[in-house]
Amino acid sequence: MPKQKESKSSKKSPKVETSPPSMDADIVEEDLTNPVEGGREKFNDSLVSELKTEQERRRVKSSVLVLTVMVSMVIGLASGLVGAVYLPDFLGISIGGDSFALEQKTIILNEESAVIEVVEKANPAVVSIIINKDLPIMEEFFSSPFDDGDFFFSPFNFEVPSDKFQQKQVGAGTGFIVSGDGMIVTSRHVVDDEDAEYTVILNDGTRYSAEVLAKDPLNDLAIVKIEAKDLKTLSFADSDSVKLGQQVIAIGNTLGELSNTVTTGVVSGISRTISTVGGLGSVQQLDQVIQTDAAINPGNSGGPLLNLAGLVIGVNTAIDQSGQLIGFAIPSNEATKVVSDVKEHGRVLRPFLGIRYILINNDFASANELKSDYGALLVAGDTEDEPAVTLGSPAEKAGLLEGDIILEINGKKINEDSSLLKSLRMYKPGDEVVLRVLSGDEERDVLLTLGERE
């Protein structure tokens, strides 16, 4: 505060007490008070009011400033956190090598844990199928190139079958349990030998004699049955939802010796068409199969191809001998139908036309100067046992001939994306269908009743 002026009645005026320093201590007014008689001071009311107003304004301004700073700090901190989480992904960059490596390690560990969990759950439901046959015992005989027949100079020996037999293992495959009472899905070529006997070995080593209940006449699928109760089972996924690159797990009796061998890979192709050779030399064309790079070795046929949820998406059926890590599996939706048919009818129901055909595409049509670049061309095979139209079949009764082209079935075009075989799977024996047929230059509609394939 400034010094007060000295009055005439007194050399010194009383001291005015000052307030403690504050945020408003710099507000000073020179003529804040006026001297009065008797040494008493009288404050100027208007100046005091202005001072208080100014102090209040400064206080409010200071509070607003502090609040603004605090809000800015909170917003800045939140923005930093959001940016750290989302900005690297948005810009396609990685920030912090150590954290990225940790994230990769976490993903790998999660995948490994998923595979381990699926295998532990599925293994009890995967079985080995042993193929046994009664074979004649071979007797060994020795012969001599010399006329004297001296035994010690008889280096040549040969074997001939005797009239005695013994049971020997001649093959092996895999299967998986789909019902608690012992229904098992496997490949048809594993159990195709009518003269063989089949033994099922569970994961715990328990052995059961197995009966072949049904074979799919269209696909490489079969159902066998063992007499058991309360068995662990596997469930089917919808194979129509399978995606390229999806991770898969194959389990099987590799080489017929290494039971429940596990391999992993991805779905590397879908809707493939392949030709396979069965154990008895039969050739079969399979449509809509799943391709995988998970190793499928001899003995794995009939085993499950699983997704990371532990559900069956396919039944392992074949490998490409000319390639590496190229295996194929029949989609689970086909196996689901087979199981349902056997439970309901005791056999697998497949529709039958009675034709042999080649699926037409642009290249085939151009090379053979056909009048249609789509459809199924009826052709005979190389032998008399392979006619284009089977005698007594629904196709023959409807008047179909070799060289005809089936263009449509019930209005749906027959092409590479929708083959005749795939289209027929939508129907049952006894269903009536309308075929659009190109005979020479004339198109006609043919009504026929589908038979049952045996």
What does the model show?
With 454 residues, the chain is α+β, with helices and mostly antiparallel strands. It has 3 domains: 25-67, no CATH class; 125-345, Thrombin, subunit H (Beta Barrel); 351-452, Pdz3 Domain. Helices cover 22% and strands 34% of the residues. The strands form 5 sheets. Strands 3-4-5-8-7-6 form a 6-stranded antiparallel β-barrel. It has a 6-stranded antiparallel barrel with strand order 9-10-11-14-13-12. It is flat, with a radius of gyration of 44 Å. The protein starts with 32 loop residues before the first strand and ends with a strand. Mean pLDDT is 79; it is low at 1-43, 93-97 and 149-154.
Question: Secondary-structure element order, as H and E?
Answer: EEHHEEEEEEEEEEEEHEEHEHEEHEEE
**What gross morphology would you assign?**
flat
Report the count of strand segments. 22
Class from helix and strand fractions: alpha+beta
What would the CATH topology of the largest domain be? Thrombin, subunit H
User: What is the beta-strand fraction?
Assistant: 25-35%
Radius of gyration: 44 Å
Low-pLDDT segments:
1-43, 93-97, 149-154
What is the CATH-assigned architecture of the largest domain?
Beta Barrel
Strand order of the largest sheet: 3-4-5-8-7-6
CATH class of the largest domain: Mainly Beta
The total of helices stands at 6
Helix content: 10-25%
Keywords: Hydrolase, Membrane, Protease, Transmembrane, Transmembrane helix
Domain PDZ: 389-441
GO molecular function: serine-type endopeptidase activity
Protein name: PDZ domain-containing protein
